[in-house]
Amino acid sequence: MDSLHEFGTSNTDDGPSINFSTNTIITNPTNPTTPTSNTVGSSSSSSPSSTLSRYENQKRRDWNTFGQYLRNHRPPLSLSRCSGAHVLEFLRYLDQFGKTKVHTQLCPFFGHPNPPAPCPCPLRQAWGSLDALIGRLRAAFEEHGGKPEANPFGARAVRLYLREVRDSQSKARGISYEKKKRKRPPQPPTALPPPPNASQ
């Protein structure tokens, strides 16, 4: 893992906090009224982001956000020491920014895809968002020099956690997450070769 490019290591006790829902970093958390937020991964110089695809831009933002999370971790973590357990901690941390209502088993709307009234159930990150995030971070890890066998985003614990989130959200929200089979358009019948001419 020596070739793995680490995130920056500068860190202070009242370092920046991450607002994952808006991809912003508040650099002065002691005074939130001070307008000191900057977009994660932004730079004052011209960036190549204008030529990158939407996926590549999102992957870069996710990578920068995870790096910021590691720097803000107590104690701070280096990427080379990051494990699947730290990735799970990161995913649970992101739940506070979730926008998906996940009903508890005691809720009268448990299993209802379209509840008729509001309820006090918690908001969480949607399974699909977490699954896509892990896919992007897994790719970014290897693009930054990480070895596939040492990729914490591909750890068995992370895969099991995502499966558990999918299953529990599916039951709680009454939504099936089964892969939908694409309907193939009907193929026109193939023309049969003309029968041999009997008059010959």
What this model shows, in words?
Residues 186-200 have a biased composition (Pro residues). This is ALOG domain-containing protein. This protein has helices at residues 54-72, 84-94, 127-143, 156-173; strands at 17-19, 24-26, 37-39, 100-101, 123-124. The protein starts with 16 loop residues before the first strand and ends in a 27-residue tail after the last helix. The radius of gyration is 24 Å and the shape is flat. The protein is mainly alpha-helical and 200 residues long. It has four helices and five strands, in the order E-E-E-H-H-E-E-H-H. Helix 1 crosses helix 3 (127-143), helix 2 packs parallel to helix 4 and helix 3 (127-143) packs antiparallel against helix 4. The strands form two sheets. The protein has a three-stranded antiparallel β-sheet, with helices on one face. Strands 4-5 form a two-stranded antiparallel sheet. A hairpin with a 4-residue loop joins strand 1 (17-19) and strand 2 (24-26).
